[in-house]
């Protein structure tokens, strides 16, 4: 009997050990499978990053080719149209150009003086003739987000990865629009038919406005700015003066000394800064509408964040080459840095993150538990997106994130 009891005990112990071994092997197999899936996910994400970088480089090259060649192409197209029509007489007239030609009959137009330079601009002009400009500081490599205090929040990254480990789908949409060739052909034919009055008006401007245009050339060539807001004022004045011409491009091409590259750079800087400043003000003043539905409110926030990221990314992609060109023309470029307007725009995105997380938290408190995971994932995904874009969270945004996380824990329990 004792021998039988001992054999039964050994058999039970062996069976238990076998079961433990099988459980360990099964657990090890599942861990290896999960590890393999994670490796595949990392490889896929790396491939997507490489694809996005290549796509960005291609877009950058195409955009800058269009930017540099647009002026030349437009001048060549108009010149070709006019040259082809010089051999034929026109039987049709275009009243608008006749009226412009009559209105341009002014021999002694006294140009308005350029807007007075600020104190900083005067200093720049005085020092430019004596000492060479100091070398520019290197572009920053890290996201500073201005002088405001933001820091990385590892909990955001951890919660985001835990929710999206097996659900990481990224979409890239590119919509390209092109002007129909038929419309351009019709415009070209109309230009040929009405050539006589148009060319006469241009020749009249070239002859009668020579002194006025030479004055503008002198102003553009000699101007130097320290503040980007002064560039906005100058460009507004310059455009107003040039609007008195029948066709700015067609008239100015008869003046080889016209500083076209600098004038275009001034306009580009002024318009870019104005658009970014308006967008930053729109984000900073964003307010949630309690009467608006949850989905509609979140779509509005996400659309605003899309515009913000796209605008900032567009500046950062060309910042190095553009800032060098601006320095050559004595145009302020520091606003393009993370310590300038770009940093302010990144910091302003934290307001969108706070409003998004607060609204999501309130929705979690009043929603059914069946949809809790989807709502939480939506809120955390947006928080993670802004966290990476701005370089971290400030104290107020961290508080909103903690509120979202605590709310989700309460709903779960």
Explain what this protein looks like in three dimensions:
- With 413 residues, the chain is mainly alpha-helical.
- Helices cover 71% and strands 0% of the residues.
- It is built from 15 helices and no strands.
- It has helices at residues 2-85, 95-103, 119-128, 154-164, 181-193, 195-208, 210-222, 228-242, 248-252, 260-284, 294-317, 319-328, 341-365, 372-390, 395-412.
- Helix 2 (95-103) packs parallel to helix 6, helix 4 packs across helix 14 and helix 13 runs parallel beside helix 15 (395-412).
- It is elongated and about 125 Å long.
> Total helix count?
15
What is the general shape? Answer: elongated
Mean of residue pLDDT?
76
What order do the helices and strands follow?
A: HHHHHHHHHHHHHHH
Point out poorly predicted stretches.
85-110, 122-132, 138-147, 170-179
Question: What separation lies between the terminal Cα atoms?
Answer: 54 Å
The helix content, as a percent range, equals over 70%
Q: Gyration radius, to the nearest Å?
A: 32 Å
Structural class comes to mainly alpha
Q: Find the count of extended strands (DSSP E, 2+ residues).
A: 0
Jot down its keywords.
413 residues, mainly alpha, 15 helices, 71% helix, elongated
Helix-strand layout with pairing:
Elements: H1 2-85, H2 95-103, H3 119-128, H4 154-164, H5 181-193, H6 195-208, H7 210-222, H8 228-242, H9 248-252, H10 260-284, H11 294-317, H12 319-328, H13 341-365, H14 372-390, H15 395-412
